[in-house]
Amino acid sequence: MLLLNLTPIIVLRVLPPIVTGFFRSWTTGKDGGEIGRIIQMKSDDFKVEKVRFKANSQCDTCIVRLHIRSINNGLPGEDLLRDSITVDIHRTSFDDKSVEFDLTDKNIIIKNKEYLFVGLETIRCNSLKNGSCSLAYIGTEEGNYLYRTKEYRDWEESTMHSLYVKIFYTY
Q1: Residue 113 is inside which H or E element, if any?
Q2: How many helices (H) and strands (E) does the chain have?
Q3: At residue 150, what are phi and psi to the nearest 5 degrees?
Q4: Exposed, middle or buried by CB within 10 Å (0-12, 13-18, 19+), for 168?
Q5: Rounded Cα distance, 168 and 55, in Å
Q6: CA atoms within 13 A on the CB side of 11
Q7: Residues in CB range of 38: below 8 A, 6 or more apart
Q8: 139: closest CA among 64, 52, 17?
Q9: What is the mean pLDDT of residues 74-101?
Q10: Which DSSP letter does residue 104 get?
């Protein structure tokens, strides 16, 4: 019989858990679903320069489309972008830098809008090794977000947490 001489450990205090981020998993196939936030603008007329968001992708490649929508009765309305603007995401994690749409050369001028909905639509995700993969949009603060699981479905709100979505503009 083997006897171990172990030193006792005394726990003085247990700290509460620290929340560093929230993950919202999302479908990796095109279904018209969209997820995003309503953002209050500091000017009624402005030029959109960049949009940043955080994602955790275990896919080799995901294509995400940007939507900037007007607000009608507190919900996302008409898409204000005339062109389809996408970005490719490769494998990313919570600690990686943000994904960014650089719109400086698009000359997107928005007038008379105090609030905007900035949304993300997953067009397609691929994984070469096993065919299936996962994508999650990340939030780092409390708040809310809006989503719809298909293009023809109604918008729903979640108040569990917000998404990290930032819009940069000049006015």
Answers
A1: none
A2: 0, 14
A3: -140, 155
A4: middle
A5: 18
A6: 3
A7: 71, 76, 115, 116, 117, 146
A8: 52
A9: 89
A10: G
Backbone angles phi, psi at 104, to 5 degrees: -60, -35
Residue reference for tokens 């929340």: 19
Q: For the whole prediction, is pTM greater than 0.70?
A: yes
pLDDT digits (tens, 9 = 90+) for 16-74: 655 555 666 666 766 778 999 999 888 888 999 999 999 988 889 999 999 999 999 99
DSSP 62-100: EEEEEEEEEEETTEEEEE--SS-EEEEE-SB-TTSPPEE
Handedness of CA 42, 50, 33, 134 (dihedral sign): negative
Distance CA 95, CA 58 (A): 13
